[in-house]
User: What shape does this take?
Amino acid sequence: MADPLLTFTDDGIFCPIGDFHIDPWRPVPRALITHGHADHARSGHGMYLATQNAAPVMRHRLGDITLETVRYGEERTLNGVTVSYHPAGHVPGSAQIRVAHKGEVWVVSGDYKIEDDGLSEPFEPIKCHAFITECTFGLPVFKWQPQREIAAELNAWWAENAAQGRNTILGAYALGKAQRLLSLLNPDIGPILTHGAVENTNAILRAQGVRLPDTVLVTPDLNPKDHPGALIVAPPSALGTQWARRFRPLSDGFASGWMALRGVRRRRAADRGFVMSDHADWAGLNTAIAATGAERIFVTHGYTSIFRRWLEDQGYEAQIVETAYEGENLDTAEGAA
Assistant: This one.
């Protein structure tokens, strides 16, 4: 049997023929990056290749890096191996990476979701022989509400808080989740304030043409009394801190796929939990995998053991790959929402 097109090493996913890695977690000479979240786009690589829309955030987060960009669907040839980037629907600029050589096609999904959120480039299924997929939410209990329903619940909660003289604070990752939530807000309810980490990312995405409502950056001299009934968007790590307490009286909320689990809702101890994720739910994972037509499936992070067994029961050849990807982390500002 010929050597596989992609292999799994201590540095990350590797293409021996093309001599490149995909989303490596240790420094390598050439890194193809699916998106800008910190567990996929790390510092220290010799050269980076990413989509045009992922590049500005990557430069902001990683500093002075050697970064080349491609358009979605544009093909590059690396040592005889053809690579192209295709929308993953995870966050703006996110991509699946298609790798092809002598008729064999593999696809690395990175992180993805199949619901069109109106901000990210919509997920595009890619036919392949082998599909490397996340399974962050690889259990049937994870089933997402339509985004329009979440928007209605979110705005009703905010309006009720404002009517009762409370501010509202919402925890969301600085890249992706925060902008998605901002796009759902009704600015007629009140002012929208943002933590610096969120606003920095807002500025980058606005410069790329992403439409977001007007926001006010929270600075040390900002007086919350000047913004009654405000909704504040901040990284999860800011909730419960002195930074957040300055806005009391307030009601706090958290948006995550993990809010589907009752025990997690109790642990977060937030006033409201919104079941919302930038990763695919159970149905989304199965739909995406079926659409590839792949017979070999490699699962990288999430409920890997359970999901592999499920895939085997459905007739796939499935394997678990140990990686350093985090999926959706409840407690950090830079998780891959």
User: Anything to note?
Assistant: The radius of gyration is 20 Å. The first strand starts at residue 7 and ends at 8. Residues 86 and 193 are 33 Å apart (CA to CA). The helical segments are 55-62, 147-163, 177-184, 196-207, 242-245, 262-268, 282-292, 304-313.
